């Protein structure tokens, strides 16, 4: 009996060693049983003192020890298309086809697991060295397959999902559009990666956005803002994550919720709305001078125009970990163009440029 218990104790030690950090409670419980088994093994009274229940537990642990390590980690995740994806263990080779998802993976400490990205993923700087597999909506399928990923992250709007699944790849479609979505996607990606840092990351984002809002004086409140996402012109509506940030900063969005998160607008709609402040990216600046009626808008006449650099625009339009930095950029714009100054704490800057001062 003593020899059998010693053998079982060795098996138990193997199981303890294989229990991952993600299963801290299991590991702790296994160690307790292991210690009990050892005490009984060295006791001369082991036949009487070793409980039958413990013996049954050890027999079960022997079976666990013979299973693949991944079986302990098996889990399922349902993506934004309602498709459930099963994992034997957290993926180690990931292709990301959406910049905000790329940044989320890296913010959660798993940048090293990325083996490929879309052509627009450029932050953090390290991902620029990774193989690019085309655009997020219509990527290069062969290039993705060649990277042998155990997970592909993409937007729900991507057309490549079904094709990749048919080739045997695991695909998770996630596309945050609101603040609540960003938090949810952080949690879901954290679950897939097997990390527990998502809640902390969101708390940091939320606290920083609150600080940006508090940095603004009350005089900025109710400033009517038009935020242009790209030269379509596509604007950020009230229900988008950008619109939610503007609301949190106390501003009023000229694009109502009924038009959706990022509607394509008739330029005349913006002229009629006559915003107090316009926020655009450098890409939009080229076409603004040719838009009928824009020169007469209040924001244009009074030069209440914030033109963000390409890098700043990328930060602003990506619903991910840098959303708080985007809030600081918008807060600085509001402070500068609504005739107020930001109190110490909001450090990001936006470049103010009037259309009239542009050089050809």
Provide a quick synopsis of the model.
The chain is of the alpha/beta class. It has 15 helices and twelve strands.
Secondary structure blueprint with pairings:
Elements: H1 2-18, H2 24-41, H3 46-49, H4 52-66, E1 75-78, E2 84-87, E3 94-96, H5 99-107, E4 114-117, H6 141-146, E5 151-154, H7 161-166, E6 171-173, H8 179-193, H9 198-214, E7 224-230, E8 234-235, H10 241-248, E9 252-253, H11 267-273, E10 277-281, H12 282-288, H13 298-301, E11 305-308, H14 310-317, H15 323-337, E12 351-352
Parallel strand pairs: 3-4, 3-5, 5-6, 7-9, 7-10, 10-11
Antiparallel strand pairs: 1-2, 7-8, 11-12
Helix pairs in contact: 1-2, 1-4, 8-9, 9-15, 14-15
Description:
This protein has about 350 residues and is an alpha/beta fold. Helix content is about 45%, strand content about 10%. It has three domains: about 1-70; about 75-195, Nitrogenase molybdenum iron protein domain (Rossmann fold); about 215-355, Nitrogenase molybdenum iron protein domain (Rossmann fold), CATH 3.40.50. Strands 7, 8, 9, 10, 11 and 12 form a six-stranded mixed β-sheet that branches. A hairpin with a 5-residue loop joins strand 1 and strand 2 (about 85). Helix 1 (about 1-20) packs antiparallel against helix 2, helix 1 packs across helix 4 and helix 8 (about 180-195) runs antiparallel to helix 9 (about 200-215). The protein is globular, with a radius of gyration of 27 Å.
